[in-house]
Write a structure and sequence with these properties.
Length: 183
């Protein structure tokens, strides 16, 4: 995990949820590796971001997809006005998951509307020092990772969706630099 080496000796933990305040690494990918967007996602001051690492063959990832879609639907206004952004980083576990056409088909099949970065070479996976699928990050208006969640949001009734939704709400109302209007 990107933050493992940066975590204090006893980071604040609540089950699968970890609270931090570390600078967010950038996402890398050429234009052709991005789906559902005309331009790459950039972490900018004033914008709250949701980033999730997933792969289409992972059952735990599949179980989280409806929660991400719920956020996409619930926060449509915030996504539209540029105060909130979300990206799924698809990093393969199996060889078949490296095929771009398969990722495109799975994004369509799962009706994913938000931007997806196809990370077939695992560049972002390595940059963020990922160790498992799925992982969800919440990034604040100051471009710091504030929270992350490893694994299924609702594994053993963990309540991850509800907890992260509450944190998204808190991050949206926190003071911070203003978001630049979408062009």
């Amino acid at each position: 995990m990107f933050f493992r080496r940066q975590e204090p000796s006893s980071p604040k933990r609540d089950g699968h949820l970890v609270t931090l305040t570390h600078p967010v690494p950038t996402l890398t990918g050429v234009k052709t590796e991005w789906l559902n967007t005309d331009k790459p996602i950039v972490f900018s001051p004033g914008i709250v971001s949701i980033v999730h690492f997933w792969t289409f063959g992972c059952i735990n990832c599949k179980r989280n997809l409806p929660h991400y879609q719920s956020w996409w639907n619930a926060y449509r206004k915030e996504f539209t006005d540029g105060r909130l952004q979300m990206v799924g980083v698809h990093t393969p576990e199996l060889e078949d998951e490296r095929k771009y056409d398969r990722v495109v088909a799975e994004v369509k099949k799962n009706k994913i509307e938000y931007p997806v970065l196809v990370d077939a070479k695992e560049e972002n996976w390595k940059r963020w020092q990922q160790s498992m699928w799925p992982t969800v990050y919440l990034i604040d208006k100051h471009q710091r990772v504030r929270y992350y969640w490893n694994g299924e949001l609702e594994w053993q009734s963990a309540g991850g969706y509800k907890k992260l939704t509450r944190f998204i709400e808190e991050l949206l109302i926190e003071k911070g630099p203003p978001a630049k209007p979408k062009s």
